[in-house]
Amino acid sequence: MRGASVYAYDLKDLLVLVRKKAPAQADAVTLHRREVEDGLLSVGLKIHCLAGGYRFSSLIDGLGGAGRILNVNRYKQTDASLCLVLPPVGNARSAILLLEAIGQFVGSELFANREIQLQVCSPGRLDARRSALLAISFYLGSDTLRRYQLADLETSFSSDYAYARGRRLVLYDADGNFDRDFEWWKGFGTHRTIVASFPFAGRSDLLAGSASRLDIENINLLATLLVHAQYQGYWSDLGKQFEADMEVLLDKHLLAGLVAAPWVRTNDPESDDDQKFFSALQELVAYAFEEASRIKVKKPGRLFRSWKELPARSSPGILQEVQSLLNRYRGELLSQSRVLDRGERT
Predict the structure, then answer these.
(1) Nearest to 320 by CA among 146, 136, 140
(2) What residues in the chain have per-residue pLDDT under 50?
């Protein structure tokens, strides 16, 4: 179910185009674009270009021109010259390959590029608490720490009357539908049922910024665990266990109170307070940077002009603990999925 207001082209058209310069990646995405791997959620992407956008000209023209491809999308990061919405794919691996293919076509690496801000879209509107866990876990589990100013999170829908989303890391869907026709796992234990589409509407977007391949994988894992916990999917028990473990970890570091902040703008009027959210984000950032202060800070980039970034290398404390937690749950999910598949083959 694709809303014409989101993207006005087919994924196959994009793949035919980028194949001219990235045949291996384009062929791999073509082959696996609708596959759901291990019950993980599908992945949607938006590319916000903070530079002039000239590198994307041939891509946009090849898809039908700006009037058809860009102007139909009213949403973008305020400082972006363009926002390209990509059709969703069934798995994070295909999403990464698609970004690699586009990068090769336009002649610019899209990962860890200060002039490219990536937004990762996941099906299902997470409630306020789970939106908080998504944002906090993403930040602490990333391989890059970032500083923000509130203006860095300004979008064309921050205060739009119909689609007001505030200035947040997590945003609910706006201005269009999301493809729901991907497999959804439900059931429990050895009793798995696969249905052809999601039993819910809406999506939760995360402004990942100058993101890495690991960020895409982490967001996909986190969204899967949290969405399954909320909507009683197959990974519901694993998701609820993750929530509990993450909250224990935050409590250990005296950060549990951050979860109550309005990390996403909901129908609750109290969630409208951007400053309350930003205070919680700044507390999280300060804690993480203090822990990682022994690492030399890189020069500020232009992704968000006020940002400073540094590698989130393993170190004792919450950064290592969250990264280890994500690795453990990724391993547990994959292990359970493999056991399930072996059982079905016997």
Answers:
(1) 140
(2) 1-5, 295-307, 346
